[in-house]
């Protein structure tokens, strides 16, 4: 029996620090490929448009280097500070644009979905997420916080896509699945 394999790129968007994580899946097995962050800082004299270009170029470089077949980006909600919400939305937009410009299909999940899928608890903290990602990918040490979230997004999509694939074998759905995972999106 042939098992399906896929390389997935997870993106945890942020204006100052965007995390990325790349995993390979082979059936239910998960294999770590790479992870890291793309940093931008207004302290370096970069204005917002330049910082967004840094994110776009950084993701384009990650895509070129690791050649993923699928991408995943976090759906972000920030309600406390409207200015921070707008900046984060622009950073997320730059990330999504880079993924689509590189012809990658994009799935999206909320932080709650990510935490439930990886840690089994929607209120899991950063340290718990880092530890669960370390365990699931059998890493020798803890990944950074942003990289752990990005890897967690890739893991979440690997789990969801396996489930949707199994469902499709029993009851075929439309080719484009929208909101199939409690408000997550797959395009």
UniProtKB/TrEMBL annotation:
Enzyme class of the recorded protein, top EC level: hydrolase
UniProt entry keywords in alphabetical sequence: Cytoplasm, DNA damage, DNA recombination, DNA repair, DNA-binding, Endonuclease, Hydrolase, Magnesium, Metal-binding, Nuclease
Pfam families xref list: RuvC (PF02075)
Textual note on the cofactor: Binds 2 Mg(2+) ion per subunit.
List of catalytic residues: 12, 74, 146
Domain of life assignment: Bacteria
GO MF terms, alphabetically ordered: crossover junction DNA endonuclease activity
Amino acids binding Mg(2+) 2: 74
Enzyme Commission numbers on file: 3.1.21.10
Name the record gives this protein: Crossover junction endodeoxyribonuclease RuvC
């Amino acid at each position: 029996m042939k098992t399906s394999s896929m390389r997935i790129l997870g993106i945890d968007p942020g204006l100052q620090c965007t995390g990325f994580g790349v995993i390979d899946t082979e059936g239910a097995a998960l294999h770590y490929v790479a992870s890291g962050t793309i940093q931008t800082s207004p302290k370096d004299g970069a204005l917002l448009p330049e910082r967004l270009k840094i994110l776009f170029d950084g993701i384009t470089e990650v895509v070129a280097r690791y050649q993923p077949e699928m991408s995943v980006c976090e759906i972000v909600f920030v309600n406390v500070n409207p200015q921070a919400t707008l900046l984060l939305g622009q950073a997320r937009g730059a990330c999504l644009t880079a993924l689509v410009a590189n012809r990658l299909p994009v799935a999206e999940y909320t932080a709650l979905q990510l935490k439930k899928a990886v840690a089994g608890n929607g209120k899991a903290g950063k340290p718990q997420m880092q530890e669960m990602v370390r365990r699931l990918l059998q890493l020798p040490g803890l990944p950074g916080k942003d990289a752990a979230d990005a890897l967690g997004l890739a893991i979440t999509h690997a789990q969801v896509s396996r489930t949707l694939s199994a469902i499709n074998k029993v009851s075929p759905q439309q080719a484009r699945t929208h909101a199939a995972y409690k408000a997550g999106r797959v395009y």
